Amino acid sequence: MDALALSRLQFAVTSMFHFIFVPLTLGLSILTAYMETRYVRTGDEIYLMMTKFWGKLFLINFALGVVTGITMEFQFGMNWSEYSKYVGDIFGAPLAIEATVAFFLESTFIGLWVFGWKKISKGAHALSIWLVAIATNLSALWILLANGWMQHPVGYALKNNRAEMVDFAAVVGNAYGWLKFFHTLFSGYVIAAFFMMGIAAYHIMKKSNLDFFKRSFRIAATFGLVSSLLVVVVGDFHAKGVASTQPTKFAAMESLWETKTEAPLNLVVVPDPENERNSVEAVKIQGMLSFLAFGDGQAKIRGLKEFPREDRPPVLPTFLSFRLMAGLGVLFVLLSLTAYITAKRDKLETSPALLRIMLYALPLPYLAGQLGWIVAEVGRQPWIVYGVLKTSDAVSKAVNDTQVWASLIGFTLLYGLLAVVDVYLLTRSAKKGPDDLSGIPKAARTKGV
């Protein structure tokens, strides 16, 4: 592989590994803040223990997310310096705001939350975790607005052989970026909900701290149901945005080779990359793809053959990733609905099959999130900034294959070690359960909600 392919692989490895931690941070910060608020309002000590237990898991995840995120910044200057030169005037602005506003707000108040127990009032302490949650979500907003600009560039002009910002409001108000933000945000909430339900299910099956974990399960099931429904709704709007702004990506997502009016939705398609046609086609709904994309069953959808071969993205990974992601999204709605109804009826202890499913389903939202990024980034190729700058023109000219191989191996080994540490710490803390329930009556700890 040459420096371009290696640089792409390295950024894919580091960014996908980093994104293991980001979405859980987004959702778990909200859930932890909610639990502490419940403690402040009700005085119920179980909510305090819930705050500390889930907050500990949040902190472990947060720390690994910060470490893995820092290394990504350096790659823009080292591996992708031509990209930084060409669009740094635009791309750097939201990243600078993220660092100077959201990250510092997040870092300051997470320190106050960690070290402020019994040193500040209960209300102020709860406020600090809410500010952490808000800052964490704001951090995601600015980063995704930057990525949204790469997907759908607006508010710029080509001057002096580079892209320069001419309308900051257009960049910030980019509808594509906001749809991407909400889609990613709610996906992160689903990850946090299934993370909490999976761990709670493990303890409920073991009859351990039943009230504690049944309450946690019910909160997570409610959060997961709402979030999974929002993912589906926002995902539909996001797909419509892709159809309008990135026709090559949309055609790859649907494996559509020929331009068609009243384009059908093919539920089962196996793309044939050699002949550039669908070798297997089954269960298609005529006009449905046109309707889903533009709200008109007669609308024209541009096929891949309408674009030059060099401007087409890889079809198979984009198509399969999109189908799997969408299928998992539907599954999350069904699972969270079942979990919510079962928890609401207080039938968790008598539903071992559901508990086992929720435990095993814990990694599935992570998989869906990674598949979503494959659709977004692989589907955008060969562009690094869609329609403006190709990936092949963005790689640094100064780096060679040996240098990138060395950094790629180094990152892989480092991240592999961090993955082992993270899984060990999270698993140990999750299995151990809450540290201290001694101040809560035993009947309340064992009888359930």
Throw out a few tags for this protein.
single chain, 449 residues, mainly alpha, two-stranded antiparallel sheet, 8 strands, disordered C terminus
What does this structure look like?
The protein has 449 residues and is mainly alpha-helical. The protein has one domain. It contains 15 helices and eight strands. The chain has a two-stranded antiparallel sheet.
Give the topology, please.
Elements: H1 3-18, H2 22-42, H3 45-78, H4 81-115, H5 122-151, E1 156-159, E2 162-165, H6 168-172, H7 175-205, H8 210-245, H9 247-253, E3 260-261, E4 265-272, E5 277-285, H10 288-294, E6 300-301, H11 315-344, H12 352-360, H13 364-378, E7 383-385, E8 389-390, H14 401-432, H15 442-446
Antiparallel strand pairs: 1-2, 3-6, 4-5, 7-8
Helix pairs in contact: 1-3, 1-14, 2-3, 2-5, 2-7, 3-4, 3-14, 4-5, 5-7, 7-8, 7-12, 7-13, 8-9, 8-11, 9-11, 11-13
Return residue spans where pLDDT drops below 50 for at least 5 consecutive residues.
438-449
Number of strands: 8
What coarse outline follows from CA principal-axis ratios? globular
How would you state the average pLDDT, rounded?
84
What's the helical proportion of residues? 55-70%
Structural domain count? 1
Strand order of the largest sheet: 1-2
Number of helices: 15
Distance between the amino and carboxyl termini: 58 Å
H/E element order: HHHHHEEHHHHEEEHEHHHEEHH
Main sheet specs: 2 strands, antiparallel
- Which secondary-structure class do the elements indicate? mainly alpha
